[in-house]
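Late entry, evening session. Most of the bench is empty. Finally got around to the prediction I had been postponing all week. Sequence below, unchanged from the version circulated by S.P.
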Amino acid sequence: MSFPSSNKSSSEEFWIKKNIEVSIIIPVYNGNQQLKKATEKTLVNLKKIDRTSEIIIAEDGSTDGTYEYASKLTSENSNIRLIHMDQRQGRGQALKRAIRAAKGEVICYIDVDLATDMDYLPLLIDAVLNDGYDFATGSRLLPQSDARRSPTRLVASKSFNWAVRVLLGSQLYDHQCGFKAFKRASVLPLLDEVKDIHWFWDTEILVRGQRHGYEIKEIPVRWNESDSTKVNILKDSKDMGCQIVRLWWDLKRNGR
């Protein structure tokens, strides 16, 4: 993991002087084309909430020029930081490192494909910053949600979330939406407990949070399936099923 060195001194001075209230993490792997739009939209929406903020690009060993483009962004905007992994370590691992590096009282992350409508970002942040929740998460499966995706992915998502509720005791309806916010003081103690380093990280952090008695707010969102999604239904369903069993056994054995 490394930070770009081109603007190191100015960045250090900026972070010392500025008290950050909200950190937005954008995890990305080979998403050069998506990153520009994601950062632009995030900056626009952060202006709406009128809070001191930072954007952290969690770049996971990309090979398509994403790292170089992200480095350029940090040199042009003092509100953007970059955490770079020399080799791909997994989305969950990239998130974990970025969360530890974040300065905000509230730490959020959004998927780089912006499948979730960014108009909901103020609601997500407000749930943690002002309403007292430990975590907040976007939900595509509440009655008020507006989620548009293929029937195959809808069935797979509902089946997965049903299994998480039944086997892992979760009270939530959607665990995998890449649109979450955490109270810094609540999420940091959980990071070492979360074992998954890939896509199941989203679910595991929510399940373990509930085991600790955390208050979690589900927010119905507008969500559109991305044309550039890296989801492989068959492979990912098998992998996620194995992770549910692994976490079930871990919780049964250790109690949390």
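Two things to note before I forget:
Strands lie at 22-28, 53-60, 80-85, 106-110, 135-139, 146-148, 179-183, 216-220, 222-224.
The two ends are 29 Å apart (CA to CA).
Will write this up properly tomorrow.
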